[in-house]
Amino acid sequence: MSLATSAEDGPERSTRGTFHYVDPDRITGPGFRFNFDPQWSGIPLRDRRVPVADACTLSEPPRLDREGFELGRLGIGEIDHRDPGQVEALWRPAVCRLVQQITGADEVASWATGARFSERNAAAARTDVSNPARRVHSDFSPTEFGAAILHPPALEAIERIAPGRPLRRWMGINVWQAISPPPYDTPLAVCDTRTVRPEDLVVGRGSAPSVPGLEVDLPLYQFSDRHRWFYYSHMEPDQALVFSGIDSAAVDDWRLVPHSAFDDPACPSGATPRSSVEIRTMALFFA
């Protein structure tokens, strides 16, 4: 069931944010490359300042099967995400249960957990990918998850829970959870999948300086006036944002949900710097 939270009753609210899109005029050919460093260097950018609606104040909460995202409850209360034992024993299983509940999948595989921190938090510099992801992107490329699942970490995760099982459908699903109290200085924004078209997609090949040999295709996006952006200004400690990364059954558009961190100008200067955790999952439907 979709959930929305708000600190107070009232009309729908929005803010404005600057989003870093790809500049298609500065790409000189197919297969351009970039680095997964804190600046995601190598991506030619074109910034746009756009409205971002507060999904907490919508009269009808967004749904995964419509806009491509929704809030859900994990059912485990607050845990210490610094403790790997709690993450593996409590949080990861709860995430998989939530994704299975929302999608109706037969099984859910998961991999690639991580934490991100506002640049106002010293932990943002801990690794190449500890800072907020400030480029409009999604995490499941059609080249690696479309007609077939080719991404090695995903294949390993699937093999652990469903070895040799043929699939008729799979859905790449992101789960994101704020673990700092609201308001958030750098919230995560998600784009209504119904406003995204295949021609908006620009796939780049990314590598990480700190992980030799790692190379992945990443969906990036060029700007469109169609795009409609949303964020959640307040999330309860047990809530997580579930959003679509790809759907193998939607071959016309893949139901991609571009997303990006942005600076909320309405956030008070003394707010706690945002901390969040995230994980990639695959909802599996067996043949």
What does this structure look like?
The structure is a single chain. With 287 residues, this protein is mainly β. The protein has one domain: Jelly Rolls. 12% of the residues lie in helices and 35% in strands. The protein has 3 helices and 13 strands; from the N terminus they run E-E-E-E-H-E-H-H-E-E-E-E-E-E-E-E. The strands form 3 sheets. A 5-stranded mixed sheet has the order 1-3-10-7-12, with no helix packed on it. A hairpin with a 2-residue loop joins strand 8 and strand 9. It is globular. Residues 4-8 have low confidence and may be disordered.
Keywords:
single chain; 287 residues; mainly beta; Jelly Rolls; five-stranded mixed β-sheet; five-stranded antiparallel β-sheet; 35% strand
Strand order of the largest sheet: 1-3-10-7-12
Measured between the Cα atoms of the first and last residue, the distance is 26 Å
Strand content: 25-35%
Overall structural domain count: 1
Mean pLDDT: 93
Content-based structural category: mainly beta
At the first level of CATH, what is the class?
Mainly Beta
Radius of gyration: 18 Å
- Written as H for each helix and E for each strand, in order along the chain, the element string is EEEEHEHHEEEEEEEE
Q: Segments where pLDDT lies below 50 for 5+ residues? A: 4-8
What quaternary form is this?
Answer: single chain
CATH-derived architecture: Sandwich
